[in-house]
Structures are given as structure tokens and as C-alpha cells.
Write a structure and sequence with these properties.
By secondary structure, this protein is an alpha+beta fold. The protein is 47% helix and 11% strand. Helix 1 (9-27) crosses helix 3 (59-67), helix 4 packs antiparallel against helix 5 (89-98) and helix 4 (75-84) packs parallel to helix 11 (202-215).
């Protein structure tokens, strides 16, 4: 039998995938992941168990992947590995192709997913209670005057950057308004991660996580903790530069005719003057 005829293309692709992942893993800077130097002061290269932990897979399974074993990694797992190995978009597409998966579309929409008009009407009916609509990838697709009064910068933020996670982790104004920023930011991230596995737009999810890793060390550390929690109504406090301390209850609604959206409303806490303060704040922004 000719030696060329004996070559198994699938096996060759698995070997190439394993070698490629190993090379990328060995070139990572440990300090970028808040990891101490490895043996003998080695500052480059993550261990297999460290990448496995970050990617949410077992060490054995990830070792098999690098060894070129005959396993069938899902797109979701490859996405996680790509994010944690800090692969570029072409490198990400390359490992997908080696596994017989089509490259993810990279086009980033210039604006958030469109929000139905009746959802906007609902938000406006809640004024002066701050309320906004989140898309599946946590882009803020619509809001009312109450939310704009609470966060005036929402109108000037470019559509691509109008994402609740990005604003929470990178916007100084938002961070300055949250006395419990550490708790709130991690709560948001755990809630987002709880739904990340079912995102239909995986490319948007990967692009968001990859970008935030580069822009925020706080995000990278929190993301690597793998916390997962579903949304729960809770008290929220804001320190507004004009209205002062505002106390709310945070609630969530999912429209039955627009299930990919979530409406977040901040209801003034009973026994506080937040409702009056919000009414004054909204009135002042109108004039």
C-alpha cells in the first residue's frame, strides 16, 4: 500500500490541532492570568490543568485534545478554549476548521438587536422609574427617560459599546455610582454566564468576552472564577452626582412575544424618597 494512501486525513487534522493548541498554551504569559511563575521561575506557558479549568473541561479531556485523540469537541468547548488561549479571530477559525466546523461570522452589528415598538412603549410607561431592555448578549437596546437621567451617557455611547457588562467593567461613571461595585459586577457576570451556553449568536458572545478580557483586568479575573447564578431581584443603590443616594429594587420581566429580550426595572424602594428624587431628576433633564 502506498504510504500516502495510508494517511488518515482526520488523524492528521487532530494531530495538527493538538500541536497548535500546545504551542499557543506554551506561549501564554502567566502573569496575564494572575498566575505565579511555574517551576524554576518559568513565566511563560500555562499548564494543561490550568487551561482545562479556565475552559470548564476536565484535565483528561483537554489532554486528549492536545494529544490528537479521536474525540469530537463541540463548538461551545472550542469557543471557550479559544477565549482562554487568547486566540485571534483567524486562529479561532483555524481550530474550528480543523474540527470540521464552519468559521463563525465575524461581522459585528453596528447597532443592538432591534427592540419592538411595544417594548419601548412599556419602558416609557414606567417613567420616572429607570428601565431598559437587554438583548441576548446584554446590549442595551432601549431605555426610558428615567434610565437616561440615571445614566446620561447612554445616549452618547457608540451602539457597539452599549453593553451592560462593558459599561459596568470599563465606564468610570457607572463604577463611581455603584458603592457595591464588586458585588454588582460579579453578580452581573454570573447571571450573564448562566445563559451564555445557550446563546444562539456564539460569535457575538466570543467577541464580547475576548474584547472585555483585553479592556478590563477585573473582568478577566472575574470571568476566570466561573461563577454561575440566575437573576434574582435584589436591592440596588446608586450614588448619583446630582440626585444623591438612590435606593431601588431591581426586577426583571421577559416579554412573552419577545423572549430574547429582558426588561430590567429599578423600582423606588419603599420608605425612601427615591421616587420623588427620580421625578425631579427626570423633570430637570427635560428642561
Amino acid at each position: 500500500m502506498d504510504r500516502l494512501d495510508a494517511v488518515d486525513p482526520a488523524e492528521e487534522r487532530r494531530k495538527e490541532l493538538g500541536a497548535f493548541l500546545r504551542k499557543r498554551r506554551e506561549r501564554l504569559v502567566r502573569a496575564d492570568f494572575d498566575l505565579p511563575p511555574a517551576g524554576r521561575g518559568r513565566t511563560l506557558g500555562l499548564r494543561r490543568e490550568e487551561v482545562a479549568f479556565l475552559s470548564g473541561v476536565s484535565v483528561t479531556w483537554y489532554s486528549w485534545l492536545e494529544q490528537g485523540r479521536d474525540i469530537n469537541p463541540s463548538r461551545q468547548v472550542l469557543d471557550a478554549v479559544a477565549v482562554n488561549l487568547r486566540l485571534s479571530a483567524p486562529e479561532h477559525d483555524y481550530i474550528l476548521g480543523l474540527c470540521g466546523l464552519a468559521p463563525a461570522p465575524r461581522a459585528t452589528p453596528s447597532a443592538p438587536e432591534p427592540v419592538p415598538a411595544h417594548v419601548q412603549h412599556l419602558l416609557e410607561a414606567l417613567d420616572p422609574t429607570p428601565a431598559f431592555a437587554l438583548t441576548s448578549t446584554w446590549h442595551i437596546g432601549a431605555w426610558n427617560r428615567g434610565y437616561e437621567a440615571l445614566f446620561p451617557g447612554i445616549t452618547s455611547v457608540p451602539a457597539r459599546d452599549r453593553n451592560l457588562l462593558r459599561l459596568t467593567f470599563t465606564d468610570p461613571y457607572v463604577r463611581g455610582m455603584l458603592p457595591d461595585w464588586e458585588v454588582t459586577s460579579r453578580s452581573f457576570l454570573a447571571d450573564y454566564r448562566a445563559g451564555a451556553g445557550s446563546h444562539t449568536d456564539r460569535s457575538a458572545h466570543v467577541e464580547l468576552v475576548t474584547r472585555l478580557r483585553e479592556e478590563s483586568e477585573d473582568f478577566a479575573r472575574a470571568w476566570d472564577d466561573h461563577e454561575v447564578r440566575r437573576f434574582a431581584s435584589r436591592a440596588r443603590t446608586f450614588l448619583h452626582p446630582v440626585a444623591g443616594r438612590l435606593e431601588f429594587e431591581q426586577h426583571q420581566l421577559v416579554p412573552s412575544d419577545a423572549p430574547s429580550l429582558r426588561i430590567i426595572a429599578y423600582l423606588p424602594a419603599p420608605g425612601t424618597d427615591t421616587r420623588e428624587r427620580m421625578a425631579e431628576l427626570v423633570a430637570s433633564t427635560r428642561t
